[in-house]
Backbone:
């Protein structure tokens, strides 16, 4: 079917973004509980790392402040990822059969998915901004290493969220084959959190584990922006880090395009 030009689809996509944003706040109690879990996790991690540093100051090749700021930021960034929200939406649409209506809309399915990702990420990010004073109290937050570090962080964070969005889209598309992605989404969240530096900064991983992590796209989502924020990566290394994020966006975008071409050929819905 012939679809309108991209520019003509933008108003409809903006409407989807607003709907996803509003839906998140219609169920704000659930969001607050989930954010509360993240805040509690930051608090527990702080207690653990402070105890470890009290017993052995050189337990990691990083200072305690760097570790606490790193895991606090990593938890907040990862919480903004729309993985569960969007994969759950695709799963329900496939299981109910209503994905058929999404596929025949004048706006393409992939742009719809992208709009849902943007809306979910925006709603979570707004909630994080409101929670920053509490998070700074239970965790640790400091200003960026400098104005240039702050600017690089913003650019890198946007690239990191794009990488996370593409990973979430790939996970969601699996529902076209399995109609169920809950278990996979839980496993994905655990692996993505670990390799994003939620529990331990990636720089503090043992050599072999750090090499393994750097072969995955997960450090590009949170660990890279945090390294720039703290000034641990500067100059040409900072540009190389941004280039790596762009490379992952190209690779994951091409992969998502390939997976979508295969997925739309086999829409299987329960009862459909």
Residues:
């Amino acid at each position: 079917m012939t679809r309108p030009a991209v520019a003509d689809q933008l108003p409809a996509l903006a409407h989807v973004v607003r709907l996803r944003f509003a839906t998140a706040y219609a169920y704000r109690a659930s969001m607050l509980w989930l954010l509360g879990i993240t805040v509690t996790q930051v608090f527990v991690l702080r207690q653990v790392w402070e105890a470890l540093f009290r017993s052995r100051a050189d337990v990691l090749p990083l200072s305690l402040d760097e570790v606490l700021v790193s895991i606090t930021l990593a938890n907040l960034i990862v919480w903004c990822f729309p993985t569960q929200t969007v994969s759950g939406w695709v799963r329900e649409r496939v299981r109910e059969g209503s994905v058929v209506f999404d596929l025949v809309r004048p706006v393409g399915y992939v742009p719809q998915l992208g709009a849902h990702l943007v809306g979910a990420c925006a709603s979570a990010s707004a909630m994080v901004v409101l929670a920053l004073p509490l998070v700074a109290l239970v965790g640790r937050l400091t200003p960026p290493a400098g104005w240039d570090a702050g600017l690089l962080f913003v650019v890198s964070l946007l690239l990191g969220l794009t990488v996370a969005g593409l990973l979430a889209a790939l996970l969601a598309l699996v529902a076209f084959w399995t109609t169920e992605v809950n278990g996979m989404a839980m496993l994905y969240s655990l692996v993505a959190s670990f390799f994003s530096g939620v529990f331990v900064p990636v720089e503090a991983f043992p050599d072999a584990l750090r090499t393994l992590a750097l072969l995955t796209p997960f450090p590009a989502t949170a660990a890279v922006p945090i390294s720039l924020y703290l000034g641990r990566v500067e100059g040409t290394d900072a540009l190389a880090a941004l280039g790596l994020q762009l490379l992952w966006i190209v690779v994951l975008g091409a992969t998502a395009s390939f997976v979508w071409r295969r997925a739309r050929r086999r829409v299987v819905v329960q009862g459909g």
